[in-house]
Design goal:
- With about 140 residues, the protein is mainly alpha-helical.
- It has one domain (about 5-135).
- Helices cover about 90% and strands about 0% of the residues.
- The chain has 2 helices and no strands.
- The longest helix has about 100 residues, at about 5-110.
- It is rod-shaped, with a radius of gyration of 51 Å.
- The termini are far apart.
- The model has no long low-confidence stretch (mean pLDDT about 85).
- This is DUF2514 domain-containing protein.
- Keywords: Coiled coil.
- It comes from Cupriavidus lacunae.
Length: about 140
């Protein structure tokens, strides 16, 4: 057997421990390396899916905003058309009431005599022309 000094023995033990540590690191890398690589790949895939989901969410948000503004615009147009229709109905009702009043007035007039028929028609036409001009 070889007789080694204390420093040589310490150096030999240190080298052996270093070799065992290096071997352990290499074995751990061989065992855990594929698992680590798979975990990194899964994390990258999850990050990519997250990016796609965020982009889709932003696009969806923009589309919903456009749809909401379109619906609001359509509602405003429908309300405006409803107001215009109500005003037109009110105006038509006023004109209908005036026409009914004129018809009632004509119905209440006494019948014209055949001898005075032309004067009666002339008076009636003159009255109607004046009414129409006042309406315009």
């Amino acid at each position: 057997m070889v007789n080694l000094s204390g420093a040589a023995r310490a150096a030999l033990v240190g080298a052996a421990l270093l070799a065992v540590a290096a071997l352990g690191a290499w074995l751990a890398a061989q065992y855990y390396g594929p698992q680590r690589d798979a975990a990194i790949a899964r994390a990258a895939a999850a990050q990519a899916q997250l990016g796609l989901a965020l982009a889709a969410n932003q696009q969806c948000d923009a589309d919903v905003g456009k749809a909401n503004s379109a619906v609001a615009s359509l509602k405003a147009e429908a309300d405006e058309r409803a107001r215009a229709a109500a005003a037109a109905v009110a105006q038509a009702q006023d004109r209908a009431d005036a026409a009914q009043a004129r018809a009632a007035d004509l119905a209440k007039r006494p019948p014209s005599k055949p001898a005075d028929l032309c004067a009666s028609l002339d008076d009636l036409l003159t009255t109607q022309i004046r009414v129409r001009q006042e309406e315009q």
